[in-house]
Design goal:
Structural class: mainly alpha
Radius of gyration: 29 Å
Number of strands: 0
Number of helices: 3
Helix content: 40-55%
Largest sheet: none
Strand content: under 5%
Shape: elongated
Mean pLDDT: 79
Length: 85
């Protein structure tokens, strides 16, 4: 309950009103640093969750070989259609 009181700005459990001092707004540099720290925490969590093999697969996924598409653009039901060239 005390968490909700503090969150909503109500009085503390002992009946006294909380003396809140307004904090100055964060600067753009502080916000960017906080966001960078959060992203690093997320990446650390991902690294802890994934095995070494999974991390390598993700790291090199953009270089993975994919086989060429088989067949052409023409399909069996295109017999009546004129050639596209």
């Amino acid at each position: 309950m005390s968490f909700l009181r503090r969150l909503l700005g109500g009085a503390q459990g002992n009946g006294q009103a909380e003396q809140a001092t307004p904090e100055p707004p964060a600067t753009a540099a502080e916000l960017e640093e906080a966001e960078r720290q959060h992203e690093l925490d997320v990446l650390r969590g991902e690294a802890a969750r994934l095995s070494e093999l999974q991390q390598r697969q993700l790291r090199y996924a953009d270089r993975a070989w994919t086989p060429p598409r088989q067949g052409g653009e023409r399909r069996a039901d295109d017999e009546d259609a004129p050639p596209s060239e």
